[in-house]
What does this fold into?
Amino acid sequence: SSELTQDPAVSVALGQTVKITCQGDSLRSYYASWYQQKPGQAPVLVIYGKNNRPSGIPDRFSGSSSGNTASLTITGAQAEDEADYYCNSRDSSSNHLLFGGGTKLTVL
Amino acid sequence: QVQLVESGGGVVQPGGSLRLSCAASGFTFSSYGMHWVRQAPGKGPEWVAFIRYDGSNKYYADSVKGRFTISRDNSKNTLYLQMNSLRPEDTAVYYCAKGGMTLTGPPDYWGQGTLVAVSS
It folds into this structure.
């Protein structure tokens, strides 16, 4: 079955730029969406479509895609960006949605 | 603003049933598809089911197909998830989420979730 693969953990120094990636065959057909989740809270959508931010999401968050890989970039990471990040897309081979396993971002 | 409030979770024995509800407000409920997504303790989200805005199409994850039924009442702005033949591996926080008109639109707003625990 289809799946989305993410690195389990990434760290970044305060104020620096970090890229979180998501790989999967479905990403050749569908854009990824990205969610931020902090402990005890529901996921929050931060990027969707080609590179769209919902209202209220800081512009330091951006998205890109190439081939079977989607990326979430945080330019100038802040302490409040420390969280789990999940990618999501439609499965290209079925009427299912997929979530990646998540990346834990640590801001040093 | 968009509000989604889930209810109906609790502790149930294996093989039992539960019905979750999700009360929606702050948007035109009848114009959007809706998702159920669950998250087991310490794990990432797992998509469970989707229903189109008019209820005409429903899609399910393989792990719940044949046991769970998604439905909606647009007159009450409420989404439902009927869960039968529950298993310990169904233990999770269940979120309802607003989707797009089709399955492709990502879940954009999520409720705070309701906990379902399947245990003897």
